[in-house]
Specification:
Elements (H helix, E strand, L loop, with lengths): L10 H4 L5 E8 L5 H9 L7 E6 L7 H9 L5 E4 L9 H13 L3 E4 L14 H29 L13 H12 L4
Parallel strand pairs: 1-2, 1-3, 3-4
Helix pairs in contact: 4-5
């Protein structure tokens, strides 16, 4: 794992170095040892390690929220990789913006990402633009597909019919014969 050492931090930007925090997102059925071990190897003490065990498509992440709330100016939040703090570009932009609003920084242990570096100065703005573009593009593609189906006279949206004409006739026949 490529790690960013404290000595490589642009000290003029951060000023006094704050505390280091770590966050891991562990999905059900996935061992989180690799993430947690890499954060411990970084030197982050257990009292500043936060992790959520996730289930489902839109899980709550209370420990990420606690971690973000705990950040102070100059603090650094380490993650094993960026997909552990966000499930979409929009969520990543929002998370980075929240960290930046606290004058804290985000670093990835496995990706060359350090929000304190000058090249990431406008990262959250650029990623917000990309997320917005992605949402608009998906919306336009969906609308175009629906218009195309409607133009071809095909059903647009809705659940497919589960009862065929034959099934309806069978139900009517059984009902008239007083059978279930």
């Amino acid at each position: 794992i490529k790690q960013i050492e404290k000595s490589s931090m642009p000290s003029s930007k951060i000023g006094a170095i704050g505390q280091e925090h770590g966050y891991a997102e562990i999905k059900v059925g996935e061992g989180g040892e690799v993430q947690i071990d890499s954060l411990r190897e970084r030197g982050i003490p257990d009292e500043r390690l936060y992790f959520d065990r996730l289930e489902g498509r839109f899980p709550e992440r209370p420990y990420l929220d606690r971690c973000l709330d705990a950040l102070q100016p100059g603090d650094i939040l380490y993650v094993h990789c960026l997909d552990r703090v966000a499930r979409s570009l929009k969520q990543l932009a929002n998370t980075v913006a929240k960290i930046e609003s606290k004058n804290a920084y985000l670093r990835s242990l496995t990706e060359p990402f350090d929000s304190s570096a000058d090249q990431y100065k406008y990262f959250s703005k650029h990623i917000s633009f990309a997320a917005e573009f992605e949402m608009r593009a998906n919306s336009e593609r969906t609308k175009a597909g629906l218009r195309e189906r409607a133009a071809k006279g095909k059903k647009v949206g809705g659940r497919p019919k589960s009862l065929t004409k034959e099934k309806i006739e069978t139900i009517a026949r059984l009902s008239l014969a007083e059978k279930s």
